[in-house]
Design brief:
The strands form two sheets. This protein has a six-stranded mixed β-sheet, with no helix packed on it. The N and C termini lie far apart (about 40 Å). It has about 110 residues and is an all-beta fold.
Length: about 110
């Protein structure tokens, strides 16, 4: 069974940092890309960052470039999203998903001003 489990969300003040984790199981981790998405109430889902686990290449959306860093630990089948200099507009539920469309339940990130 494919599982993606996010953790690490929480409440943080503007300017603070969080590190999200996405623990994956049930598929060959190295063969898939993993992406982080976020969705705020009343807004469309937004792609934040993604990583190709076969070659380590990454992509980040312009809205988070320079503040969010995606990385993976293939030995742990885990993808991370390091977030610094958080802003209130980063408040959202953050999800991870693999290339096959499987996704986790999400983790809430709330940034207070």
């Amino acid at each position: 069974e494919v599982q993606l489990v996010e953790s690490g969300g929480g409440l943080v003040q503007a300017g603070g940092s969080l590190r999200l984790s996405c623990a994956a199981s049930g598929f060959t981790f190295d063969d898939y890309g993993i992406a982080w998405f976020r969705q705020a109430p009343g807004k469309e889902r937004e792609g934040v960052a993604c990583i190709n686990n076969s070659d380590g290449s990454t992509y980040s959306a312009d809205s988070v470039k320079g503040r969010f860093t995606i990385s993976s630990d293939n030995a742990k089948n885990t993808v991370y999203l390091q977030m610094i200099d958080l802003k209130p507009e980063d408040t959202a539920v953050y999800y991870c998903a693999n290339d096959a469309g499987s996704r986790g339940q999400g983790t809430q990130v709330t940034v207070s001003s």
